[in-house]
Structure formats: C-alpha cells, structure tokens
Amino acid sequence: MKTLLSAIDRTSAGLGRIAEVVVLILIVAMLYEVAARYIFGAPTLWAFDIAYMSTGVLFVLGAAQALRQDAHVRIDVLSSRFSHRVRGWIDGIAFLFVLAPIFCKLAWIGGQRTWRAYTLGEVEHVSPWAPLMWPFYALLTIGLAALTLQLAAQGIRALAGRGRPADLTLES
Amino acid sequence: QDVTWRVPTSVPEGSPYYVNFLVRFAENVDLLTDSRVEIQPFGAGVLVPALQVYDGVRDGIVEAGHSTPSYLVNQNPENAIYAGFPGGMGPEAYTTWIYEGGGKEALEKLRASEGMKSLVVGIGSSEIMAHSNKPIRTAEDLKGLKYRTSGPWAAVMKDYFGAVPTVVPPGEIYTLLERKGVDAIEWGPPSGNLPEGFHEAAPYIVVPGVHQPTFLWEVVMKQETWDALPEDLKPKLEAAAELTTLQALTHMYDQDIKAMEQFRTTNVEIINLDPAFIEEMSDAGRDWIAKTAEAEAAAGRGTMKEVLADYTDYRTRWSAESGYLIRNED
Amino acid sequence: MLTASLMFPALFALILLGLPIAFSLTIVSVGAGLVAFGTAGFNQLYGSFYSAVTNFILSAIPMFILMGALLERSGVAERLFRVMSLWLGKLPGGIALATIAMGGVFAAAAGVVGAVEVMIGMMAIPAMQRLGYDNKLIAGTICAGGSLGTMIPPSVIAVMYASLAQVSVGKLLAGMILPGLLMVGLFLAYIVIQGMVRPVPVPRGPVEDDVPLREKLWLTVTTLLPVFALILAVLGSILGGIASPTEAAAVGAAGALLLCIGYGRFSIRVLKESLSITVRISAMILLIVAAGTMFMGVFAANGGATLIRGGIEGAGLGTTGMIVFFLLIVFLLGFVLDWTANVLICVPLFTPFIRSAGIDPIWFATMVIIVIQTSYLTPPMASAIFYLKSIAPKDMTYGQMCRGVVPFVGLQILTLAIVAAFPVLVTWLPGHIVGF
Ligand code: NA
Ligand code: NA
Fold it and tell me: What sections of the protein cross the membrane (chain A) (predicted)?
C-alpha cells in the first residue's frame, strides 16, 4: 500500500514538473506573438490557441500535485474544532468515496472525448490554424486521472489518520 | 405541455442574435403549438461550451441546440456554403435559395448524414467589412493590414491580398483596436457592432460586408428526438422556424438601418467601397471556395462540389434577372 | 427549482465541514447535475469544466503569479520594500500605502482579479511582517489592493459585462475610472488616518536614519528605476497598443526574469521554485473557477434564473427598491460564484428590467461591479481571502484575514453609496473621453 501511495505521489510530482514547463511555453508564445505582430508585422495564427491550451493544461496537470501539497484552499473555522479523528473521517470519506469516483468519471469522459477527436480527426472549431484537438484532450484526461488517483491516495491517508500534511506550507 | 427542451446557443444572452433568433423562436413555437412545446433558451457557455453546441446535442446533454455552421467549417468545409462565404449571395438571394432553391434540403441532408435534424432559425444581414484605424479603399490598402478576422476571409485576405489576419480573442478586440494594436477588425452586422462600441475605438467604417454577405443559424436535434415528436407538432415547429427566420431578418434590416444612422451622427467616416474593388474581393472569395470544393472532391467527398454548383447556378440566375427589383438604393 | 434553492445551503455545509472550496463546489454540482440532466449529467459537467479550461482570459493568472514569485524569490521585492521604507518609513503606514498604490498600478495592467493580489501579496507580506505590521492590516491591504483590478481599466469583468448587457465597453471603462480612483483614495486615506489615530499596529518603519543620503539615493536609483521600467513595460505595452492585456502579463513575467538576472539574483533554483509556486497557486485558483463554472451551469439548468426572476417580479418593487434588490443578489451570489459565473447569471437577468425602468445602464453596471468586488472581499466566503490563504505564512490566521478586510469592505460600501448618491461621478467622464 505504501509503495502504491508513493508511486501516486511521484506521478503527481512528475506531472507538476511538466506543468512548470508549460508555464514557460505559455509565456514564450505570448511574447513571440507580441514581437511578431508589433515588430515584424506578421502575427502568428497559433499563439492564441497555444495560450489557452497551455493555461488549461498547466492547471489540470498541476491539480494533483496541488492536492498532494494540500494547496486547495479550505475554510477551517468550524472544522478546526473537530477532533483529528473526525476530520480524518470527513476528508477520507469525501476524497475516497465521493470525489475520487466523480473525477474518475470525468477522466473517463475525457478519455472518450480524446478517442472521438482522434478517430474523427477533430480540429479546433474556429482557429485559422486549426490544430488537431486530441493531444490537448489527452493531456486534460491525464491530469484528471492523476487527480483521481491523488484524491484516492489522500482519502486513504486521511482514513488511516495521516491526514492533512501539516509540514507542507510554502515549500522551498 | 408535451415537450420541454433546454436549448443552448453559441452567443451570450445579451446578444441581438439570442433575442432575435432564439427567444423569438421560443415565442413562435409557444404560439403555434398552443404551448404544447416549451423551448427554454440558454446563453453561451452556461449549459455547454459556446462552440460545442453541436457536440452537446450529440452527447445528449440537451435535447436541441442553436448554433451556426460557421463553427463546423474547420471540420467539414461544406458548412461554409451555409455559413455564408466571401463573395457569396446576399441575404435576399440567399434566403430565396434556402427556401425555394433547394438550400434548406441540402443543409438537412448534410445534418442527416450526421444523425441530426436541422431547422433553419435565423438568417442574417450583411456584416460590416471593417472598423478600421486606417482607411481602406483599394487592394493596395489591404497589404500588410493587421486585420482581426476569422474563417475563410482570413485565408482570402492573406493569400490574395497580402493582408495579415490576426487572431484576437473576443474580450480583447476592443482594447487592441482602440490602442491600434490591430489596424482593423470585423465582427457582425451594423446592429451587432453598435453596442460593442467599435465605432468609438476606430475612426473608419468600411462597407459593404463582402466577407460575410449573409449568415445562417440553425436549431439542431438528434434525428430520434425529432422522430419521437407527435406527428402534428412537426409541421408546427417547421412553420415556427421559418416564421422566425423571416421575422428576424426584417427586424435585423430595420435595426441595421438605425445603427448606420447612429454611426453617421458620430465623427466616424463611412467608406463605401468602389464596385470594382468589391468585385475583385468577391472573385477571390469565390475562387477560394471553388478550390476548396475541388480539393474535397479530390479527397473523395464530392457533396460540397455538388451543392456549390447548385448554389452558384442559383446566384448566376439571380444576378442575371434581379435587375427588375427595386432596391431603393441611393 | 427546489434543487436550485438547495444548492447554496448544501455548498455552505460542505465548506464548513472543512472540504476544499473547489471540491465542495464539485460535489454539489454533481448532485444537482444528475437531477437536471440524468445520465448525461457528467457529460454536462465535463463541458463546463472544459469551458473553464479553455478560457483564454485566465491565461494572465499564471503569468502574473510567476512575475510575483520571481520578484519575491530573487530578493528584488525585498530590496524594493527596503527602499520604500527608507523614504516612507516616517509616514504612518507607509508600506501599506505603497502596497495599495502598487495594487492600483498593476490593476491598470491586469484584466483579471486574483492574479494581482497573489503577485503583490507574495512580495509585500514578508516585507510588511518584517517591519512589524499587524497581520490584520497586512491581510486587508493585500486583499483590497489586489482587488482593484476589477475597477481600474482594463477590467475583464467590465468587458464581459458590457458585452452581455450590450452597452459600450469604452463608456463603461471610462465611467468606472472616477469611482475606481475614489476607492483607491479612500483606501489610502483610511490607512493614513488609522496610522495617526492608532499608531500601534501601523509601524513607522525601522529606524534607518543613519543610512547616509548618498547611499540612500544610490539604492533608490538602482532599485526603483528598474522596477519602474518593469511597470512601464507592462502598462506601456497595453497603452501603446503593443500588447493586449493578457500579453502584457507575459511582458511582466519576462521583465521580472530580466530584473532577477540584472541584479545577479537569478539561479535555476529560483526559477524552479518560482515555477513550482506558480503551478500550485494557478491550479488552486483555476480549479475553483472550473468548479464554479460547473456550479453555475447546473444552477441555471435547475431553473436558478427563473427562481431569481420570480423573486424580482413577485416583490413588486419601485426603482430604488429594485436596484437595491439586484445589488443584494449580486452580493449574495458573489459569496459562492466566481465573478465570471456571477456576471453570466445576473447581467442578462437584470438588463431588461433596468432598461424598461429607464435607469442609466452604465451607472448601474458600475454599481454592480463595485458590489462584485465587495462580495469578493467580504468574509466568510471571499475569493480574495482564499487566494491570500494560498500564499499567507502560517502565523496569519483566517480570523485575522477576515477581520482585516472588514474596514476595506466598509470603504467599498462607502464608495458604492457615494456613486449611488452622485451618478454624475460615473456619467460625466465617458461623454468627454470616448469617441472621436
Ligand atoms: Na484592471
Ligand atoms: Na464574499
């Protein structure tokens, strides 16, 4: 069980790394568009698509890692008065039995979309660049799947009494 | 009530198309079916993503959806014929082709091949060719012009006139035009552009809308949804759709005239293009679509070429004989 | 409609149980989505998720966060705040004033809220804590300063509002300028007065009088000039028509990187840490936005708009009563909905009533936008506080944050009251600067 949980952690961390690279891609694409339009008078047809796709991808790929670091904001005014055990049960049940199945289903639909886009050769609806859409759908699906696994992992940990990691604030 | 449908569209709730097309359709349906069918309109992005209304219907999220074939051109260029294309027929001729010349049937056939039923709900007037920071009068003026546009017109502007089509997301068009980050933009017909305030951002308005002489919106549903309707309701929905389209078009003409009058009260200069230049751009558009249809046929998809032949034939006959019509132009 | 009315209590319950906001929104959306759409419910939710994921205007968020993280990690922010305290240290609440001013300046560069707050928060919190500022004042200052992006052009909320209500974007943006400046002015005045009346929590800064003037000037020139250059690059690229507001965020991030390099503070470690923070906070913010989009779609599908419309028509209110009622709805929805969702639901609902009552649409829009910003700040459910929480140090509690924003919420309501009493504040400027 322990190895399984840490494998999930490592996957989330790995996807988080990829998301970091995507941040750089986003910025470079935007700067390139500014330069291409203003200096060279020849704007790209792709910068807009790359920008919205990288934003979507970086956040979905980063969601699992953010969960591992307990970065998804909660309000603990009331819940901080519950005992450690009760909080563990709340998180455990919600993460493992409610949220993991929900995101699993969303990831499944994401997978169907990816497959449909792949088989139909779906391209962007309005973009003059008209890129194929399945790689984008696939990345979203991977992010949702990783979030599902991380939710399950955090749920198991919470039920086992090793709930919210207290030592992970602003990591350095 | 026999039937209640949630119907999302691809424009936000405040948009004139939302009220003029979809809400009008809901009212006409209510009227003609004696309230047996209820259409609940929803603005863009509320129930399904704005550009994925067709997918939302196909996935069974909503019973029916309202959108334009424009958003399907990238998937299947035949849609460009129905969406309206550069150099195509204007609203008068096009509406006649749709209802009398076989256009509606051709569109229904295309949708049927996708397992869907189509009702034409909304045909539009011509768009404004550009709100511009630079005057556009000749082909020379298009060279190097940073022009926010999309679809076939982007290709025509780039390949035939050396303009620089620029992708700008809707939320940033106004700012970028006002700050002269782009030279020109196209968006919608006069009544659609007036509330967007583009005339307050750039000093020139260029007409007529060669790039988008007309456009079409449709309500689509799965074939089985349509088949499951009581027989007596089907002709009533068809009638409501046609009534909506014709009412909406005259309403849009009226709103457009008022919008143009409004533009004239400002300091914006309205440039009416020279007929020869209009013809030059129209020819380029027709050349583009002919080549596209040819390429489709070569790839084994011959329908586009057939429909385009019908369309072109109708346009030629209309042009040849419509000289008898009084158009009240100055 | 019953489902729609139950969605909000259910959401509050889950949030109070201590579940993350984004997940609480998701659970309620799934429950109500299955009621509205049956088996297709998950497909609909995926669609809403997809809408949020492909929303271009959110691209500015990661870029502004990276900009703040780079300036903070590299020590540029620390240097900047040291110089500010050299000069402003004598002034009561000097650094708080500088932080609000910085919020205002970056609000003029950013279209989306949230991004600016996180950015200036990362830079200002450590500096203010070191100077011994009270946590409550720090929290209030960051939240209030960071929320100015709503009111100060370019504002994505205003652009979206204008397009939904079919009013002129230019006129709305121009109309909001004076109320926006009034709000900044009130914030600044409050900090100064607070500092004079109750000087304890507002330090006068460290005693650095012994720094020789020459060194003081040299530090100032070498620190402030590059930072001003960065601000100029971001603002100037928008005003000069070089970049769109979203692209300007990229200019800012790249500029921050250049500053780090210029000061010799750049290293791969700094870049990696900054990117890691950027991804984490962006994921947190955007997951809330995505879940909020799901919530809004399901709320609408369950007849939420009909529910509200019924309330409006049933109440039989006069013009003033109607305006108050509308603003109240915006305020309450703002507790749980992201501003995009709030505007998407409310504006189409209100616009016909506003039109037929002959109310000036720009004036009304400005008030709605002020209320959205107020709701964004008002505890217990306040996005501004959620975002602050993601970057706040451990010793800054949720309670302190809530109490810290209260005075600023009061100032926002004061701004609203002034705008309500003097519509000319909104209506005068647009006629003078928009158009040719
Ligand atoms: Na702003
Ligand atoms: Na709030």
Answer: 21-40, 46-67, 88-109, 129-152
pLDDT digits (tens, 9 = 90+) for C120-145: 888 888 888 887 788 898 999 999 98
Q: What is the DSSP letter of A95?
A: I
Residue type, C24: S
Nearest CA among C130, C124, C176 for reference residue C150:
C176
Residue B216 in tokens: 């079409």
Which ranges in C131-202 belong to alpha helices (H)? 135-146, 156-165, 169-197
CA C111 – ligand 1 centroid, Å: 4
Q: What is the mean pLDDT of residues C401-426?
A: 93
**Residue B68, CA distances (Å) to B102, B118, B206, B215 in order:** 19, 11, 24, 8
Task: Determine how β-strand B130-132 pairs with β-strand B184-185.
Answer: antiparallel
CA C17, CA A80: separation in Å to the nearest integer? 9
What is chain C's length? 436
| pTM to 2 decimal places | 0.89
DSSP codes joined into one string, B179-229: TTSSSEE--S-HHHHGGGTGGGT-SEEEES-TT-S-EEEEEEEEHHHHHTS
C-beta separation of B233 from B36 below 8 A = yes
Considering only the beta carbons, identify the residue of B146, B150, B151 that sits closest to A41. B146
Residues 20-59 of A with CB under 8 A from C: 20, 23-24, 26-27, 30-31, 33-34, 38, 48, 51-56, 58-59
Are residues C239 and C54 in contact, defined by beta-carbon separation less than 8 angstroms? no
| C 227-256 → A contacts, CB under 8 A | 237, 242-243, 246-247, 249-251, 253-254
For A66-114, the pLDDT digits (tens) are: 999 988 888 777 888 888 889 999 999 999 999 999 999 999 999 999 9
Q: Do C399 and A77 touch (CB under 8 A)?
A: yes
| Helix (H) and strand (E) counts in chain B | 14, 11
A69 Cα to chain B: minimum distance (Å):
31
Q: Which of C93, C98, C103, C113 has the alpha carbon at shortest distance from C183?
A: C103
Q: If we measure between CA atoms, which residue out of C427, C412, C385, C384 comes closest to residue C327? A: C412
ipTM associated with this complex: 0.92
Say whether residue A146 is in contact with chain C using an 8 A CB cutoff: no
Q: Which of A100, B261, A76, B51 is nearest to C397 (CA)?
A: A76
C window 59-88, beta carbon within 8 A of A? 59, 61-63, 66
